[in-house]
Amino acid sequence: MLAQLTASLSALKLPLRLSLPDGGSVDLGPSPRVELTIHDPALLQELQAPRLDRLGEAFVQQRLDIRGSVLEAVAVADRLSSLLVPEQDNGDVLHQPHDRRTDADAIAYHYDLSNAFYALWLDPEMVYSCAYFRHPDDSLAKAQVQKLDHLCRKLRLHSGERLLDVGCGWGGLARHAAREYGVHVHGITLSKQQLKLASERVAAQGLGDRVHLELRDYRDLAGKENYDKIISVGMFEHVGHANLPEYFRVLQNQLKPGGLVMNHGITAHHVDGRPVGHGAGAFIGRYVFPHGELPHLSMAVAGLSDQGLEVVDVESLRMHYARTLELWSNNLEQKLDQAAALVDERALRIWRIYLAGCAYGFSRNWMDIHQILAVKPLPNGSHSLPLTREDIYL
Predict the structure, then answer these.
(1) What is the mean pLDDT of residues 14-24?
(2) Which InterPro entries match (predicted)?
C-alpha cells in the first residue's frame, strides 16, 4: 500500500517530502520545500483522498507535523487535494440555527481565547479585521490605521455625531473615531475578554466621555433612530443566513433618517453561500468559527435593500485581506514559543493552520470581503451625500 501510494503521489511532482513513521522518507518532487512528518501510520491510507479538513484535523490532533513554511504547506495541501479529491456538489445549503445563547457561546469560543495571544500577532491597536494597504510595503500597523480612516471617511463622520459600533472587538475603531473625528461611540460586543481590554484602553486614553462599550446582543438594542451613523466590522459573518433580515432590520431601526451604515464583512464565493470546497469550509466551521455562515454579496445587498437602506458604495478588499492574513500568520510563526505559553497546543495548531489557510484562500478567491455603504433616505427620498467619492480619497 505504501509503495503504491508513494508512487501515485510522486507522479504529482509536488515540492513535498513525506517523513514516514518507520523513519524513512519519500520526496514527491524535486527540491522539497515542505516536509510532512507522519506520526500515525493510519494517516497514510487517508492520504489517498486528502481533503483539506482531514489534513488540517490531522495536524491539530498531532498525527502529523509540518516543517517549513506553513503558508507553503497550505498551498501544497490544496494542490494535493485538488488533484486527488474530485470536487462534489454540496447539495442544499443547510443553515444553522442562531439564538442569543448559541451566538454568545460561539463568540466566546473564538474571541475569549486569550487577549495576550491575539496581541502577539495583531497590530498595536489590536484591530482584528482586514487592513487597507495604500502601498504593498505598508506595515501592518500603518495599514490598520489606514483602514480605520478609510471607514471613518466613508461614513463622513463629523464631530458630535453618535456612532454605533456593532461588534466593537478590542475597541480600536471606537477609539480612533472618537479621538480623530470627535464622535460619541456606543460599542457593543459579546466577548467578555475583548470588552475588558477595550474598556481598559478607553480609560487609559482618556476617552471615557466619548466612548461607551458594553456587553450586549445587537437584538437587544432599545429605542429607535438613536444614531447618526452605524458601523459593523467583522460581525455579520456570525449572524447566520436565517437572521440576516432581523440583523439589517435592527440597523435600519437604530439609524436616523439621512444616516449612513457601513457593513464590512467576509462574503461567500458562491451565490448560495455554501462553504469553501475540498473541506476547507468544514475545517473552519468545526475548529475556528462554530456557527459562522458567510453570505454572498448579493444576499447582503438584498438584505439591506429589503429594509429600505439604499446601497451607495461597494468595495472589495479581498487582496488586502490576503496580505493582512499573511502578515498575521508570519507574526504568529515568529512567536511560537511565546504563543505556546499562552494557549494549549491544540489551539495553537488550529490558529497556525487557520491564518495561513485563510491567507491562501483569499488570494485564491475562495471567499471575498466587502465594505458596503448604505444610506437611510430622508422621508422625501433624498439624502445629502456628495455627488462623487472624491472626499473619501483626498
Answers:
(1) 90
(2) CFA/CMAS, CfaB-like, CMAS, DUF7884, SAM-dependent_MTases_sf
CATH superfamily of 2-84: SCP2 sterol-binding domain (3.30.1050.10)
Mean pLDDT for the stretch of residues 310-336:
98
Residue with cell 475540498: 278
Q: How many residues does the chain have?
A: 394
* DSSP H or E stretch at residue 348: helix 345-363
Cell matching residue 101: 445563547
Which listed residue (130, 152, 168, 358) is catalytic? 358
With a pLDDT cut of 70, the percent of the chain lying above it is: 90
358 is catalytic: yes
163 pairs with which residues across the strands? 185, 229
The residues spanned by each domain of the chain are: 2-84, 100-393
pLDDT of residue 2: 57
The rounded distance, in Å, linking the Cα atoms of 65 and 61 is 10
pLDDT of residue 13: 80
The alpha carbon dihedral of 215, 237, 116, 120 has a sign of negative
393 Cβ neighbours under 8 A, 6+ residues apart: none
Any residues with CB less than 8 A from the CB of 142 and at least 6 apart, and which?
none
